[in-house]
Amino acid sequence: MKLVNGMQKPDLPDTILFQPAGVLTLPNAVEVSDSLSVNGSGVGGGSNSVKTALGEYFERRHFYREVISERRGCLNESLAENEVCRFAQAFLQTASRKVSVREIETYEFALTEVLRTSDFTQCFIPTVCISLSSHSTGQDSVFYPLRDTCGCSFHWNSDFALLGAIKESLERQMLVRFWLTKHCRFRVSTAHVGSLLGKRAVRHLYQLLVASGEVTFLDITDTRFPGACVLAVYGQSKGARHVKYCAGMSYASELAVALEKSLLELWQTFRFMDLFKATDSEEAKLEDSYIRYFLDCNAYETYQEITDVIECGGVGPEQRFTLSGFMTVLKRMGVSGYFYFRRERVNEVSCVFVKYMSPDLFLHMNNSKNFNLDNKYSEVFRNSVRFSRLDKMVPFP
Asked: Which residues form the YcaO domain (predicted)?
């Protein structure tokens, strides 16, 4: 079923496409889009697929098109000396050409207002650290050319938006850490997966994927943080199949929830890949560079490579899986961060857009170029990084 925004309300997407599963035990799918190529998609039972798709759409639309630069100026006009040094250290590594600390410090960036996570005081940081578009940022992209949705969040409730942003950012940090080191906490055994998913509707999807190919769940949690971060990967060795490798990930307070959500995310990408291949679509026409790269990784060998891991075990801290809990851990690590926080209205309903960013963390997921490998987060595992993997981006959409 396709719903069209016939009233042409500018706050709302142009179309919502409902795609109920042909098999009742599989999750439904929803796609949301507008005429300017912003899309969102979601899978799940009941209304969850609709909520996920709309949330992804509004999030992408805002960070691609609606982030505003309020002025231009040097970093030290709003930031303390130690903050300027942290940004300079990051930009030295991410810049698309050779730059100096002095050039970074004297350059007038397009700036956007944010809140320091340390005390929630206001300051200004480069707009390129927030916006996914180069519009209004001029030549600033030279210092930070590769950007993605890492740390972005949308919600109707500000508390959920703030928690979602920092959780999403840490999830991506853990993924890159895992890829660069091969270190995971453990493989989740088939028996354990069965018991944790035994009473959840997603168990039917899991059973069908296992019957079709191979499914591995890896707990890639950084044990400095609470909760469970799970990477779900699918592999298929038969040459005639469209999907040879696929992946999904989730970071949640409990392992069972992370397993379920990572599998749903895997299925969301699996459906796209299968349809894309079945219709002989052209990869060159895809605007998202991460998706293009992920399709290039569609091989059983990728599955074999990513499941070749070192199990390190470990137990997370007693810290609660809350915003204050995450902030406590990050402060203990010496990580300074910022919240971009904007309260807006969508169709007369209040909502919140948040992005969490820190120059002390990996600034994006493409570890193969313009990448700030040296930072506060990576200090403890820097010596475990496999440099052969620095030349290859983590195979994740």
From this structure: 40-397
- Rounded CA-CA distance 152/156 in Å is 14
Token pair belonging to 111: 């700036």
Query: Among candidates 132, 8, 110, which has minimal Cα distance to 62?
Result: 132
> Could you state, in order of their start, the residue ranges of all structural domains in the chain?
2-66, 71-157+323-389, 186-219+228-311
Give Cα 257 to chain centroid, integer Å: 17
Residue 51 CA to residue 59 CA, distance in Å, equals 12
Q: State the CB neighbour count (10 A cutoff) for residue 120.
A: 9
Residue 77, SS3 per DSSP: helix
Q: Can you tell me whether residue 98 is helix, strand or coil?
A: coil
pLDDT, tens digit, 9 for 90 and up, residues 349-391: 999 999 999 999 999 999 999 999 999 999 999 999 999 999 9
**pLDDT classification of 284: cutoffs 50, 70, 90:** confident
The number of residues in the chain equals 397
Q: pLDDT value at position 283? A: 87
Least-confidence region, from 14-23, 47-56, 88-97 = 14-23
The predicted structure's pLDDT at residue 2: 86
Amino acid at 299: A
Whether the predicted pLDDT of 5 surpasses 90: no
In whole angstroms, give the CA distance from residue 385 to residue 160.
Answer: 33
User: How far is 256 from 207, CA to CA, in rounded Å?
Assistant: 16
The region that residue 44 occupies, defined by phi over 0 for left and psi between -120 and 50 for alpha, beta otherwise, is: left
- For residue 285, the SS3 value is helix
Tell me the whole-structure pTM to 2 decimals.
Answer: 0.96
The CA-based dihedral angle spanning residues 204, 207, 212, 216, taken in that order and rounded to the nearest 10 degrees: 120
